[in-house]
TrEMBL record:
Native organism: Segatella copri
Region (Disordered): 18-42
Biased composition (Basic and acidic residues): 22-42
Record-level GO BP terms: DNA-templated transcription elongation; transcription antitermination
NusG-like N-terminal domain location: 50-149
Domain of life: Bacteria
Name of this protein: NusG-like N-terminal domain-containing protein
Swiss-Prot/TrEMBL keywords: Transcription, Transcription antitermination, Transcription regulation
Length: 223
């Protein structure tokens, strides 16, 4: 059963921008010839990786779709992920439980694309910047497995997940052995009786934690 989820929104400070009005006209033209389905007829490049674009809050999906439309129009494969969670709430009018999606991390678009295409994203007027590692100019590429693990945390429907605004403190590495998150590896944050708080993180961006039964965990030997 899905549980009610408490979300602590992570908002990145950004500067004012034009939200992409400068690309609106070209986007309309691209829509006329873009494939009906995302990446239809396009092959994922072997060097595709995960990068993060920072945009105006509450404009993530619109801008991500705009990027896809324009890149697909130019025969470029592009995929994206915007972290969202399903939240259970009580509708005041009907007094019934309903489910809706809510942003887990605001202002971030996780872009899966060839590094050769990054300039076509970062130089758009509606993209503030592409994330780089602290003190470096090179755009930060996130390992595929790191994104996959983090995504399992955020999108799981069995346990409520909370955003952690700072890097997680490292502890014992564990692996989930059953349930929808089977195979996911994480680090133990704390124990509380039969429960454990485990976490996953994407360096320099955010962490995610959830509470899970200790019986569902096994220790991963590192060495």
């Amino acid at each position: 059963m899905m549980k009610e989820t408490n979300i602590h929104s992570q908002v990145t400070s950004t500067i004012a921008g034009d939200d992409g009005e400068a690309v609106a006209k070209s986007e309309q033209n691209a829509k006329k010839t873009v494939p009906e389905k995302p990446n239809e007829g396009l092959e994922k490049p072997a060097d595709a990786g995960w990068y993060v674009a920072v945009v105006r809050v509450n404009c993530e999906t619109r801008i991500a779709d705009s990027i896809r439309i324009n890149l697909n129009h130019n025969h470029v494969w592009f995929d994206y992920w915007i972290p969202k969670v399903k939240v259970v709430y009580i509708d005041k009018r009907s007094n019934k439980r309903k489910v809706k999606e809510k942003l887990f991390l605001s202002t971030f678009i996780f872009c899966n694309v060839s590094p050769r295409q990054l300039d076509k994203i970062r130089f758009r007027s509606d993209v503030y910047k592409m994330l780089t590692m602290p003190g470096q100019r090179k755009i930060y590429q996130i390992p595929d497995q790191v994104v996959a693990n983090y995504r399992y945390f955020v999108e799981n429907d069995e346990e409520p997940v909370t955003a952690a605004p700072v890097p997680l403190k490292k502890g014992i590495k564990v692996r989930v052995v059953a349930g929808s998150m089977k195979g996911v590896e994480a680090y133990v944050q704390s124990y509380n009786g039969k429960k454990a708080v485990i976490g996953s993180e994407i360096k320099y961006i955010s962490g995610a934690t959830l509470t899970i039964s200790r019986n569902l965990l096994e220790v991963v030997e590192e060495g």
